[in-house]
Amino acid sequence: MPPAAARLAGLGTTIFTEMTALAVRTGAINLGQGFPDTDGPAAVIEAAVSALRGGQNQYAPLPGVPALREAILEHQRAWYGLEPEDVLVTFGATEAIASAVMGLCDPGDEVIVFEPSYDSYTACVAFAGASPRFVTLRPPDFGLDPGALRAAIEAGRGRVRAMLVNTPHNPTGRVLSRDELQTIADACIEHDLVCITDEVYEHLVFNGDHVPPATLPGMAERTLTISSVGKSFSVTGWKIGWCSGPEALVAATRTVKQFLTFAGGTPLQHAAAAALRLPRTELDALRDDLRAKRDQLCEGLAAAGLKPLVPAGTYFINADVGTDSTRWCATLPERCGIVAIPTSVFYDDKDAAPTLVRFAFCKRPQVIAEAARRLASLG
Ligand SMILES: Cc1ncc(COP(=O)(O)O)c(C=O)c1O
After folding, report:
1. How many Å lie between the centroid of ligand 1 and the Cα of residue 200?
2. Ligand 1: which of 35, 68, 97, 170 to mutate, most ligand atoms within 8 Å of CB?
3. Which of 17, 89, 94 to mutate to test the pocket of ligand 1 (most atoms within 8 A of CB)?
4. pLDDT of 11-25, one tens digit each?
5. What span, in angstroms and rounded, lies between the C-alpha atoms of 321 and 35?
6. DSSP state of 354
7. Do 234 and 318 touch, CB atoms closer than 8 A?
8. Which pTM does this prediction carry?
């Protein structure tokens, strides 16, 4: 592998591609990568079909198709009372995160990253020539330690430019509390940091409420709020995302995005607008369905003698397997026909959660039942 690619590969993890290939090869049930095994709402799929048939097949405007940009603004207003100055449609939340970090950080800057973290964060920070400054969330509750956040900012004093916040949080399934968000807000305001938030699981919350960091006093003017259609509407393959917030932050993100992919997914952008305009009852139904799956897999894990940490949001459960999770996961497909991910891959500090394994529960009930049966056979 050329050195540049090797350096990047070393920053993140390639385990998802490897594990998914392993699942396909061995016929194992894939509870590794987080994607649902059913389609999203029929009305959303139909909206995509009619956009395809209706001639919406050329480049979209760089900021996104007007119908989707309006739907995002309406969504932010209706759900959270937010009035962002500007909005940009991106190729999934992932491109918004990459473009934002590259547009807002200079080489030598530091970015506060809460670990465990979604695997693209550290690579995106590297694209900018910046460095991550990790704040570790530890099991079993993965709470934010204000002292650890203060210490991280202090250690990077003068170089910390931004904070990357993910709530609801992958891989822990935590929904950050208002107190934790206030700690984050206080730190951002005191040290004049940009807050880049990844809220792709905003509608997958089973206990408590999702609070967008931009809603806290003094935060709207320094927060770039990112989300996407994939998780909320079970269309992860569409990769239609967006960011919204102050004009200057959106403009910086747009400048990078322009040279990465310019604009794409025109018909799916129209369908995403339809998705965001679905009645709330549809989102409630999707969430309730997912909650039942969470409970079903938690029961299955517990019955198999593992110790699930019940998540408040997302579609991931971490369970303590009581032994080295990397080794445990490596042999799991052949031992019982299941693929799962060691939670340690999401940590820079590999000793922070050495016995935890992440399982995705966004699967059909019969698939979860079969997974539970196989896990029970581990004995
Ligand atoms: C925390 C987090 N952010 C972003 C993404 C990717 O979002 P998208 O598919 O919209 O790029 C994921 C997908 O797993 C995720 O878990």
Report:
1. 6
2. 170
3. 94
4. 666 777 888 888 888
5. 23
6. T
7. no
8. 0.97
